[in-house]
């Protein structure tokens, strides 16, 4: 009976998925055949073309990230499960792939809606874009088919492919799924990065325009258009971001299940799941600022105007909101780790240090959030003698921000280290020396990072950007790797004085997981707006001007309002998918109870 | 002396940080901080306090105890009453401050650094893409020291003939007219000004002045004159050399440090 | 919570307030964004929901609060939009004009920086415009509503609403630079605020096309235009009213603004030959920094009468003032310094700077009165010279004199002995007198000592830094730097200018 119900549900999902893909793949070419040369724009009713395209695109992207980030997570977890032979991991990975199925058809649906909106509202732009990227769109369709079939195989083959060899094949399918997903993202990234930076680069990494300056005619090759100036930085940034996003969404799902869970076992299971999700999110979060830094630097190199617009001019206040969100992410992630220590006996040893760590993180976040040009009334400005404060004005400079972000990352790493060590005693004889070495490494690294930061106020910007900042980053990464290595050796055969009491977490920590997921999503929405808004009134920067009524940069407040609406819709849909998942589980649990009862009865 | 409750300690910490920001930094050490910054820092301190007290269940209960007692315990009725009078009073003061007459100008949005156009021009003459234009005399720094010094000297002459009235004799933005201007003249001694921009950016700002600000650089009320009407191209490049020579800050370049 | 309908109502209200916040509904029930915006409603309701509900709804409230928090944070940050309106194909209908005018009012026109459209908003820098459509016709007698709006946008300085300053820039000028059509839409939008929209075309009082050429030029300092500097000298700042320059005549019938008296001021015909440019600049910006002898203005009191005049000369015993009587006849008066009335010194600080040269003080400890010429002062002590004797007195040891006027207009002057909330005790000629504060009409005023002073100031207004724009200033300086006595020659010689600059630069 169970199998019948399950398969009927699955088939329904399959049907919807195929319907969505049909919409996406059949409607698009049909729509393209329409005569689109005369009409430049058509207005979308009520909310306007831009908002319509914006909402559809951002939702498509968020769901796309979901079905790329979560399978990444699932494959890693499946691999861990295979290596550790811990069944829990395998179960958890499968649980997520099931959630992916629902999200997959929604993604395709959103993609279809987006294409509809674009073709309906922006026929001329789409005409131009297809003229350049036509072949990649066909390639995209094939990739989409590939992803669909691997996902279905991966999901439905899960229970069947549990043998020793077939499990390897199954894992391979998972990897293949991610390869398809990543490729899809890379292809679509090419389109949108091309709109931002329609230029390729020479061997010295200087931009070469791809359009005739007079006529605006495309003069490059397809590969040059794909491999445009910001394509790779955006690819890497999004890939890492997706890992973190996948982890955060898993964390939120676990938190949701934890909060509604009735039994101790359930609580323990979802607590553990939330921890794993948060861990993966953290792993993605730590290199993310560096990837963003690379992207920002390349935007400056592509076009200084765009760079200044981003960091100093039109979008500078947006980055203050971004700073608030990143501050929330780091404080939240640390809070979760510290909460986690309370479920391990022996974690109290490290709790003594927590106030200092809170202090360091908050001070660093304060520096990170302090804008260069302060919000001040005329009177306050007169008292300061200008828009910059003589003392905290220094916090607004990039060198200060780079320094504190490295310190935040090191502190977060330290929190994690303490968490790992809680309740364990190293079995090696040199544990005292090891601790001294680790403290020394931390001390030296912090001193070096702060010193370099101070030097950064004095030197040429080029030297700072090309040499000092990377050195700071390398120091932080070196500490991460070195200390992890020492710590792994030290605790390899450590004695566990107490187990982790999974499930003994406060509800507050679970809310923090939700907070992290929402913040992550909001951050993606905000940065998506920044990336797209940077073009200002161009469809293709410097080539094809936007002459529609929406060709202006809205107020930040208005933009974030639209993003808020997108986030609400996204979580409403995701919440719905989670909720459906809950139903299935309830039924399963009932059936399991029944069977268990039967089994008892049989005895 | 009775032992202070955790809640009281937190209140004291919060108040201490506020006093530190408002009076120590704002009075003793430096000039006052704007209310927006103090608000932001206090918000962070509040978050820090809440994080610290709420990680462990026991501590959180201990933190909440005085609040619960005040609201529920009969012994604490006076405290409760005081609270119930105080809170509306605070709200009253807040409302009053909101509706009371203020003649002060609203906090204006000023864009820190306007974004330059794609093309650098001098009058109608197109010099080139702003990205790639370099100071034509910069190479003399390596090739011909004397000639470079002559350009810097000429820049000094141009500066003291034209710029110093507003930008000051020490290039710190405190010239004779500075107090009458809003926005204030740029302070070139600030580490955030010269190192962040290419020389072509400075050429653009000097040659086009306040009237040449882009649409996004509201409120466009800079008093900077359109210097291309009065100075030659060479004079503008010279004065840029002088700015960096005098202050010791090097304008932004791309990809040179690696060589 | 026992009553589920309360919880459900709170939940619904929270969702409504979230939608209202995001969709920017007008504030409710108090129609003011300042007092009770939707963000406050939402915040309170979300908190209530988090407390009242458990599990899923609690989670939902929390999530909405996080999303709201970021939207709220973004709305707090000041920001601009680059939104403009394309008026090239606008229909000439009231609806279209009002709609476009609103965008310009809040966007390019920057009107909303100072003007509000909310009668309950706190008084801002400029008048609230929420009912301007019906009020415009009543503001200025004899001016119709539309004409008033036209005048207020093109020439805002012509009529000021009581209580507001002359701070509005003409919106057709840079940096706002609204076009005629854009101004028309704004006027239509303003008419729509409580009135009827009237789209009849009108002739703007200012010809933007020709005026714009003039205002866009901002001349730099020393490349200032000599001819325009001369116009500033004669017409703009009206320097010519007081300062004579050979060959320049004061325009006939020219009057100065109220409050500035025409006085004799130094002849500037050769100013550039006599002084450096730095000095000239300083003299314009800070007239009191150095006063040319014979041109300082002074007010003295002798025998109870106050005499105001120009200080012609002074020596150790006499001063000579040139005084103008009511009929405008100038006479010279010589006054002995010893005949000047002593004036009370409220506090013993900056005596030299305030022109005191002779001090009389009573000492607190001995009761002795000392007097003499002021030799030196520092923060704590004053040094007086009486004949050949030098006395140094601590400022804190000087008796405080109090002056009280009662209701019978009796003036009581005495040394302050004691004062409390109700009474004040004075020592008048060795006799202690206690006065009930209830009986006091004026005072008490306190003074620490008496002195004679000769406070010389420049009669020149000190607000030229505000009156003159940077461009005017540079033109004026350029003009003044040509005044070397040989007018024609100096204009041709650019060299002398440069020298003056070199001097300033050092």
Jot down its keywords.
heterotrimer, A: 603 residues, mainly alpha, 2 domains, two-stranded antiparallel sheet, two-stranded antiparallel ribbon, 6 strands, 2% strand, disordered N terminus, disordered C terminus, C: 506 residues, alpha+beta, Cytochrome Bc1 Complex, Chain D, domain 2, 5 domains, six-stranded antiparallel β-sheet, five-stranded antiparallel β-sheet, 15 helices, 33% helix, extended
Question: What fold name goes in the CATH topology slot of the largest domain in chain B?
Answer: Cytochrome Bc1 Complex, Chain D, domain 2
Greatest interface and its residue counts?
A: A-B, 72 and 63 residues
The average pLDDT of chain A is 83
Order of helices and strands of chain B: HHHHEEHHHH
Strand order within the widest beta sheet of chain B: 1-2
**Low-confidence sequence ranges of chain B:** none
Oligomer: heterotrimer
Descriptive overview:
The complex is a heterotrimer of chains A (603), B (259) and C (506). With 603 residues, chain A is an all-alpha fold. Chain A has two domains: 2-301 and 573-591, no CATH class; 344-499, no CATH class. Chain A contains 19 helices and six strands. In chain A, the strands form three sheets. In chain A, strands 1-2 form a two-stranded antiparallel ribbon. The radius of gyration of chain A is 26 Å and the shape is globular. The two termini of chain A are 22 Å apart. The mean pLDDT of chain B is 82. Chain B is mainly alpha-helical and 259 residues long. A two-stranded antiparallel ribbon of chain B has the order 1-2. Chain B has helices at residues 6-29, 35-54, 57-72, 77-99, 140-143, 145-167, 199-208, 233-247; strands at 119-122, 125-129. Helix content of chain B is 52%, strand content 3%. Chain B has two domains: 6-99, no CATH class; 119-247, Cytochrome Bc1 Complex, Chain D, domain 2. By secondary structure, chain C is α+β, with helices and mostly antiparallel strands. Chain C has five domains: 4-76; 94-116 and 127-217, Orthogonal Bundle (Cytochrome Bc1 Complex, Chain D, domain 2); 226-290 and 462-505, Orthogonal Bundle (Cytochrome Bc1 Complex, Chain D, domain 2), CATH 1.10.760.10; 296-339; 343-453, no CATH class. Chain C has helices at 4-22, 38-52, 55-76, 94-106, 132-139, 145-154, 180-191, 208-216, 226-236, 271-274, 277-285, 464-467, 470-480, 487-492, 494-505; strands at residues 296-302, 305-314, 318-324, 330-336, 343-345, 356-362, 369-377, 381-386, 389-394, 401-406, 411-419, 423-428, 431-436, 440-447, 449-453, 456-457. Chain C has a six-stranded antiparallel β-sheet, with no helix packed on it. A five-stranded antiparallel β-sheet of chain C has the order 4-3-2-1-16, with no helix packed on it. In chain C, a hairpin with a 2-residue loop joins strand 8 and strand 9. In chain C, helix 1 runs antiparallel to helix 2, helix 1 runs parallel beside helix 3 (55-76) and helix 6 packs across helix 7. Residues 212-221 and 487-506 of chain C have low confidence and may be disordered. The chains are: A mainly alpha (603), B mainly alpha (259), C alpha+beta (506). At the A-B interface, helix 10, helix 11, helix 13, helix 14 and helix 17 of A face helix 2 of B.
């Amino acid at each position: 009976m169970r199998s019948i119900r399950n398969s009927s549900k699955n088939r329904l999902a399959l049907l919807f998925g195929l319907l969505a893909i049909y919409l996406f793949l059949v409607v698009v070419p049909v729509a393209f055949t329409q005569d689109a040369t005369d009409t430049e724009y058509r207005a979308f009713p009520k909310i306007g073309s831009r908002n319509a395209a914006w909402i559809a695109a951002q939702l498509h992207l968020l769901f796309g990230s979901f079905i790329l980030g979560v399978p990444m997570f699932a494959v890693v977890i499946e691999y861990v499960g295979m290596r550790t032979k811990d069944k829990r991991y395998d179960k958890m990975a499968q649980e997520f792939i099931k959630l992916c199925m629902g999200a997959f058809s929604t993604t395709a649906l959103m993609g279809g809606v987006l294409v509809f909106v674009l073709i309906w509202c922006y026929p001329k732009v789409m005409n131009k874009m297809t003229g350049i990227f036509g072949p990649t769109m066909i390639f995209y369709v094939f990739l989409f088919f590939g992803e669909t079939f691997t996902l279905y195989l991966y999901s439905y083959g899960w229970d069947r492919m549990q043998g020793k060899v077939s499990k390897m094949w199954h894992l391979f399918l998972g990897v293949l799924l991610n390869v398809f997903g990543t490729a899809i993202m890379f292809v679509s990234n090419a389109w949108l990065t091309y709109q931002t930076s329609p230029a390729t680069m020479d061997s010295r990494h200087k931009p070469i325009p791809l359009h005739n300056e007079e006529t605006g005619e495309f003069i490059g090759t397809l590969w040059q258009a794909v491999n445009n100036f910001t394509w790779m930085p955006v690819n890497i940034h999004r890939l890492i971001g997706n890992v973190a996003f996948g982890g955060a969404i898993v964390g939120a799902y676990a938190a949701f299940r934890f909060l509604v869970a009735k039994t101790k076992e359930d609580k323990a299971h979802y607590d553990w799941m939330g921890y794993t999700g948060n861990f993966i999110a953290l792993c993605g979060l730590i290199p993310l600022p560096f990837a963003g830094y690379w992207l920002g630097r390349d935007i400056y190199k592509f076009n200084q105007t765009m760079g200044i617009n981003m960091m100093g001019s039109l979008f500078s206040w947006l980055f203050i909101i971004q700073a608030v969100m990143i501050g929330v992410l780091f404080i939240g992630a640390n809070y979760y780790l510290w909460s986690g220590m309370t479920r391990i006996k022996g974690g109290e040893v490290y709790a003594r240090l927590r106030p200092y760590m809170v202090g360091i993180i908050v001070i660093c976040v304060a520096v990170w959030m302090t804008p260069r040009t302060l919000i001040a009334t005329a009177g306050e400005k007169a008292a300061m003698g200008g828009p910059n404060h003589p003392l905290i004005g220094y916090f607004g400079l990039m060198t200060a921000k780079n320094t504190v972000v490295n310190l935040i990352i090191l502190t977060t790493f330290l929190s994690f280290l303490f968490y790992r060590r809680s309740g364990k005693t190293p079995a090696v004889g040199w544990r005292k020396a090891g601790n001294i070495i680790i403290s020394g490494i931390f001390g030296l690294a912090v001193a070096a990072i702060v010193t370099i930061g101070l030097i950064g106020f004095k030197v040429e910007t080029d030297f700072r950007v090309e040499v000092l900042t990377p050195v700071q980053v390398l120091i932080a990464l070196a500490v991460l790797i070195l200390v992890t290595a020492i710590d792994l050796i030290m605790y390899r055969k450590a004695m566990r004085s107490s187990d982790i009491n999974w499930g003994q977490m406060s509800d507050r920590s679970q809310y923090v997981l939700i907070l992290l997921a929402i913040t992550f999503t909001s951050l993606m929405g905000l940065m998506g707006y920044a990336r797209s808004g940077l073009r200002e009134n161009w469809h293709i920067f410097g080539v094809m001007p936007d002459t529609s009524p929406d060709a202006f940069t809205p107020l930040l407040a208005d933009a974030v309002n639209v993003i808020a609406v997108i986030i609400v819709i996204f979580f409403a849909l995701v919440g719905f998918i989670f909720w459906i998942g809950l139903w299935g589980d309830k039924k399963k649990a009932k059936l399991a109870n029944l069977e268990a009862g039967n089994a008892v009865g049989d005895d | 002396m009775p032992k202070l409750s955790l809640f009281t300690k937190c209140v004291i910490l919060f108040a201490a940080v506020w006093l530190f920001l408002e009076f120590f930094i704002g009075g003793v050490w430096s000039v006052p901080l704007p209310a927006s910054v103090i608000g932001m820092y206090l918000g962070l301190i509040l978050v820090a306090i809440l994080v610290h007290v709420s990680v462990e269940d026991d501590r959180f209960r201990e933190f909440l105890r005085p609040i619960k007692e005040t609201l529920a315990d009969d012994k604490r009725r006076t405290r409760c009453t005081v609270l119930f009078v105080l809170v509306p009073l605070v709200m009253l003061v807040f409302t009053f401050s909101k509706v009371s007459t203020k003649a002060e100008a609203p906090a204006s949005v000023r864009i820190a650094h306007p974004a330059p156009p794609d093309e650098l021009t001098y009058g109608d003459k197109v010099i080139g893409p702003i990205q790639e234009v370099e100071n034509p005399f910069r190479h003399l720094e390596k090739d011909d020291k004397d000639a470079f010094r002559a350009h810097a000297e000429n820049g000094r002459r141009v500066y003291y003939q034209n710029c110093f009235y507003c930008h000051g004799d020490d290039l710190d933005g405190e010239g004779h007219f500075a107090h009458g201007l809003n926005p204030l003249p740029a302070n070139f001694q600030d580490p955030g000004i010269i190192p962040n921009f290419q020389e072509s950016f400075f050429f653009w700002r000097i040659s086009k002045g306040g009237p040449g600000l882009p649409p996004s650089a509201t409120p466009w009320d800079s008093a900077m004159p359109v210097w291309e009407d009065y100075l030659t191209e060479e004079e503008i490049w010279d004065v840029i050399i002088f700015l960096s020579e005098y202050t010791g800050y090097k304008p932004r370049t791309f990809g040179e440090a690696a060589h | 919570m026992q009553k589920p309908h309360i919880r459900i109502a709170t939940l619904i209200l929270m969702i409504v307030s979230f939608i209202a916040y995001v969709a920017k509904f007008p504030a409710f029930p108090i129609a003011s964004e300042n007092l009770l915006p939707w963000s406050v409603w939402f915040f309170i309701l979300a908190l209530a929901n988090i407390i009242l509900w458990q599990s899923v709804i609690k989670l939902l409230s929390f999530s909405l609060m996080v999303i709201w928090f970021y939207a709220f944070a973004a709305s707090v940050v000041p920001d601009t939009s680059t939104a403009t309106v394309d008026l090239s194909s606008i229909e000439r209908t009231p609806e279209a004009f009002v709609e476009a005018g609103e965008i310009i009012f809040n966007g390019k026109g920057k009107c909303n920086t100072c003007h509000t459209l909310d009668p309950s908003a706190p008084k801002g820098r400029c008048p609230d415009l929420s009912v301007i459509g019906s009020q415009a016709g009543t503001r200025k007698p004899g001016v119709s509503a539309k004409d008033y709006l036209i005048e207020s946008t093109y020439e805002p300085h012509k009529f000021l609403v009581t209580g507001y300053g002359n701070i509005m820039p003409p919106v057709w000028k840079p940096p706002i630079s609204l076009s005629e059509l854009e101004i028309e839409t704004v006027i239509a939008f303003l008419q729509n605020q409580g009135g009827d929209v009237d789209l009849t075309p009108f002739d703007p009082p200012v010809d933007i096309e020709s005026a714009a050429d003039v205002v866009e030029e901002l001349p730099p300092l020393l490349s200032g235009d000599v001819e325009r500097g001369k116009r500033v000298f004669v017409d703009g700042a009206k320097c010519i009213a007081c300062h004579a320059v050979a060959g320049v005549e004061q325009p006939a019938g020219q009057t100065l603004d109220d409050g500035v008296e025409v006085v004799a001021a130094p002849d500037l015909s050769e100013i550039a030959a006599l002084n450096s440019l730095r000095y000239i600049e300083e003299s314009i910006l800070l007239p009191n920094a150095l006063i040319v002898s014979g041109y300082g203005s002074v007010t003295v009191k002798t025998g109870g009468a106050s005499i105001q005049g120009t200080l012609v000369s002074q020596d150790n015993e006499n001063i000579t003032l040139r005084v103008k009587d009511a009929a405008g006849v100038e006479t010279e008066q010589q006054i002995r310094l010893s005949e000047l009335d002593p004036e009370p010194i409220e506090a013993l600080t900056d005596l030299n700077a305030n022109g005191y040269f002779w001090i009389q003080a009573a000492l607190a400890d001995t009761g002795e009165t000392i007097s003499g010429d002021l030799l030196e002062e520092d923060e704590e002590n004053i040094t007086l010279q009486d004949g050949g004797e030098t006395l140094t007195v601590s400022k804190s040891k000087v008796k405080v004199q109090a002056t009280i006027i009662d209701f019978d207009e009796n003036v009581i002057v005495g040394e302050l002995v004691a004062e409390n909330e109700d009474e004040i005790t004075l020592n008048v000629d060795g006799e202690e007198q206690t006065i009930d504060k209830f009986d006091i009409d004026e005072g008490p005023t306190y003074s620490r000592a008496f002195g004679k002073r000769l406070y010389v100031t420049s009669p020149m207004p000190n607000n030229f830094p505000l009156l003159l724009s940077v461009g005017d200033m540079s033109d004026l300086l350029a003009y003044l730097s040509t005044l070397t006595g040989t007018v024609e020659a100096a204009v041709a010689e650019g060299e002398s200018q440069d020298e003056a600059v070199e001097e300033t630069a050092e």
